[in-house]
C-alpha cells in the first residue's frame, strides 16, 4: 500500500501539489482526520492516476448535464469542467467533473460543497458510510481499508 501511495503522488500532473498542510486544514476546519480526507481523495482520483485526476479532480465533484446545452457555472475554486466520455446509461446525461489547478483548490471545493457532511466525523466507518450514501462511489469496507493505509503512513 505504501508503494501504491507513492506511485499515486508521482502520477499527478506537473504543477499539482499535494502538501501535508491541505488535509490538515480540512481536519482543523471540520474535525475530521487527515487519513480519512486522503483516503477519499485517493479513491476518487484512482490513486492520482485516474482520467479526471489529470485535471486536479481529486474528490470527483461532478454535475450532470444534457448532451446539448451550455455547461453550468464553475464550482467554487475550480477552473473548468471535464466531460465524461460516455453518458449515463440510465439517464442519458453526461457527467461534468470540476477541474482544479491544485490539490488545495480541489480540497477547498470539496470542503465548501461536501464538508458539512463530515463535520466532527473521526471514525473511518462512519466517514465511509457518509461518503457512500452521498454520491461517492466507495464501499464502506474499501474506505476503511484505504483509510488504514493512510493512518499507517501518517504515523
How would you describe what is shown here?
This protein is mostly helical and 155 residues long. The chain contains six helices and three strands; from the N terminus they run αααβββααα. It has a three-stranded antiparallel β-sheet, with no helix packed on it.
Q: What tags apply to this protein structure?
A:
single chain, 155 residues, mainly alpha, 3-stranded antiparallel beta sheet, 6 helices, 43% helix, disordered N terminus
Question: Major sheet, described briefly?
Answer: 3 strands, antiparallel
Low-confidence stretches: 1-19
Discrete helix count: 6
The main sheet orders its strands as 1-3-2
What is the CA-based Rg, rounded?
Answer: 15 Å
**Net shape:** globular
Short description:
The protein has 155 residues and is mainly alpha-helical.
What is the strand and helix layout of this fold?
Blueprint (H helix, E strand, L loop, with lengths): L1 H9 L10 H10 L3 H11 L17 E4 L14 E4 L10 E6 L3 H12 L9 H10 L6 H15 L1
